[in-house]
Automatic annotation (TrEMBL):
Basic and acidic residues bias (residue ranges): 105-114
Compositional bias segments (type: Low complexity): 70-84
Record family assignment: Belongs to the cAMP-dependent kinase regulatory chain family.
Quaternary structure annotation from Swiss-Prot or TrEMBL: Tetramer, composed of 2 regulatory (R) and 2 catalytic (C) subunits. In the presence of cAMP it dissociates into 2 active monomeric C subunits and an R dimer.
Limits of the Cyclic nucleotide-binding domain: 184-299, 302-409
Taxonomic source organism: Saccharomyces uvarum
Keywords per UniProt: cAMP, cAMP-binding, Nucleotide-binding, Phosphoprotein, Repeat
Gene3D superfamilies found in the cross-reference section: Jelly Rolls
Protein's recorded name: cAMP-dependent protein kinase regulatory subunit
Spans annotated as Disordered: 66-138
Amino acid sequence: MVFSLSKESQAELQLFQNEIAAANPSDLLQFSANYFNQRLEQQRAFLKAREPEFRAKNIVLFPETDESLSRPQSAQSQSRSRSSVMFKSPFVNEDPHSNVFKNGFDMDPHEQDAHQLSQDEQPHGGEKGSTPPLPMHFNAQRRTSVSGETLQPNNFDDWTPDHYKEKSEQQLERLEKSIGNNFLFNKLDSDSKRLVINCLEEKSVRNGSTIIKQGDQGDYFYVVEQGTVDFYVNDNKVNSSGPGSSFGELALMYNSPRAATVVATSDCLLWALDRLTFRKILLGSSFKKRLMYDDLLKTMPVLKSLTTYDRAKLADALDTKIYQPGETIIREGDQGENFYLIEYGAVDVSKEGQGVINKLKDHDYFGEVALLNDLPRQATVTATKRTKVATLGKSGFQRLLGPAVDVLKLNDPTRH
Ligand SMILES: Nc1ncnc2c1ncn2[C@@H]1O[C@@H]2COP(=O)(O)O[C@H]2[C@H]1O
């Protein structure tokens, strides 16, 4: 029997397949449950933003349930629970260990990091009972830890975008032309893309004006439609960019002060996205990789000299691979294509005729010698445990490691 799927279902399945291919989850069912919960929440956040528009047409998107009416509540929490009843996510709310946020959806025990909510993003109320609870031991094996960073982008229970305004046909056309191909938007499914686009605010900026001042608090993320900007760190020009580029993400991602001053070097037309919408929508998709690798890169001694900005750019270029015990990762004599950072696991480094010459584990690195010296691989590297690595291609190695290359050279084991 041949089943025919609607276009919508096909698109949904394709998105899902892409996520699986990218994440290579160790626990497919958990991954899938988290993934679809997040999709559902995203879709409903989108509908929620459009609720007034539907209400005007007498369409009720979020009917009041018996339960939401029977509990005594403040006016504010009543309006909140009306919609959040529908948003309850059994896998997320009832499971203290679950985390759909930081690493995309993979729930590998070594990748877990339950991040604290910041004050303004704490889920309110936490009403229970509207959905069947999951057994509490579900996912109980998974490690959780609390990081100082606040990176929980995707709890939509109580969030309505503040700056939502349907764009005109003309604006949509302009946006499609100028930023339609920007990597930020390519990673979004159609609902989230539409939500983000309708939350963008148009801003005209005069040549010479300061758009962002280093050290300030982060409020907006910007995408450039027209014009050019320069970036200054401690009064030194470090970069320039133009149409289609974006800036201002770091302070919003890490809740840190602005890392650079940004000055318009011509009249600019910018699109600004407010901090909360950025965190709720873009962090979990377009910037997922940065979140995923942030802890690893921060804790690697060899990368100590990199700035937040350097680490962010590096994370964008990394890919993940998992090796099983006994698998060869690098073979002596082969051409070198990648540099490897060990997220977790263990590997043996061996040389023909000498046997095992080194053992490496979590947060060590390998594969640098061939790339630094343009030589064939000088040793074989084999996983001795299940090992997860982040890989960086040759061109990224040369472009993105910056000052860390000097440290790698100093530590080059073939030079001693
Ligand atoms: N070399 C750089 N260091 C820091 N920020 C940079 C650099 N080049 C461009 N930027 C951008 O400048 C922005 C200033 O605000 P944010 O720190 O929020 O995010 C920063 C980056 O998007």
